[in-house]
Amino acid sequence: MPELPEVETIIRRLRDGTSDQPSVIDQEIQSVQVTWARIIAAPDPETFQHALIGKRIMDAHRRGKFLHFPLDEGHLIGHLRMSGDMRMEDRLDAQMSPLPLNPYDRVVMNFRSPHRMVFSNIRKFGRMWYLADPSLIFGGLGPEPLAPDFSSAILYEKLGRHTRHIKPLLMDQSFIAGLGNIYTDEALFRAKVHPLRKSDSLSSAEAKQLHHAIQTVLKEGIRRFGASLDWFYRGGEFQNDFNVYGQTGQPCPQCGSPIEKIIVGQRGTHYCPHCQVQ
Predict the structure, then answer these.
(1) pTM greater than 0.90
(2) What is the pLDDT of residues 40-50, one digit of tens each?
(3) What distance, in Å, lies between the first and last C-alpha atoms of the chain?
(4) CATH classification of 152-271 is 2.60.40.1180, yes or no?
(5) Which of 81, 89, 204, 214 is the most interior residue, by most CB within 10 Å?
(6) Catalytic site positions
C-alpha cells in the first residue's frame, strides 16, 4: 500500500485539482523544506532543496507506483512506499502567515502561489528524487498493466519465460509495474488461479483470463478511488468489495468455502481453496 489505483487517485487529484485546491501543473517552486533527510534519494538533500527553486511543474502522471512530475528542467519523482501520501494545500492563512505542517510531513514544495505540495510519510520509507533522466528510475520497470499495448498474448509470453510462483512474479515490478499484495490476490481470485501455480504452467486461455482479471480489478480500484486500509490513506472505497484479501475465514463469494491465508513470497496471501485449485 499504496498500489497502482491509490497512486493513480493521488496523481489525478494533484494533476486535475479539486474543488478546493488548484492543480500542481504550472506551479513554480519557491522553496523546499525537508524535515526527514533520508527521504531524499538523489541528489543529496541540500542540493535537492536548492536545485528545485525556480523550477516549474509541467505535468503530473504515474509510472507503476511512482509519481512523476516533469519540470521545465529535470524530473521530480516520488515513491510513497508503505505509508505515503501527497497532497496539495494552502500554505498561508488569511493573514498571509505560514500554516503549520503535520508531524509526518517530510518534504514540502512551497509554490510561488499561496499553495504547497506536501509529501507525508508516516513510516519514513518513502523516497524522492530530482533527476535529469527519469529512465534511471523507470528503466527497470515492467509494462503498465492498463496500457493499450499490454495484451493477453504479451502476458502469456512473459509468463512462459519464468518458472516462479505466479503471486510473487506478478508483484515483481520488473515484470509488471503497479501490482501489489491487494490487487494481485483479487486478480488471481477472479482468474481462478492458485497463487502457488508456476507461471509457465498457465495455458493461453488462463493467461487471457488473468489479463482480464488484472485490468478489471485495477480499473475498479481506480473507479472506487483505491482502498482505504490505514488512516494515512483515506477516501477509497474498494476495500468494501474485496473478495479474498483480508477475508480469512469468510465465505467465498463464489462457492461459500472459507477463504484461507498462506504465506507466499513472504507476503500474506488470501485465496479460495475450492475456486483456485493448485
Answers:
(1) yes
(2) 999 999 999 99
(3) 27
(4) no
(5) 214
(6) 2-3, 65, 267
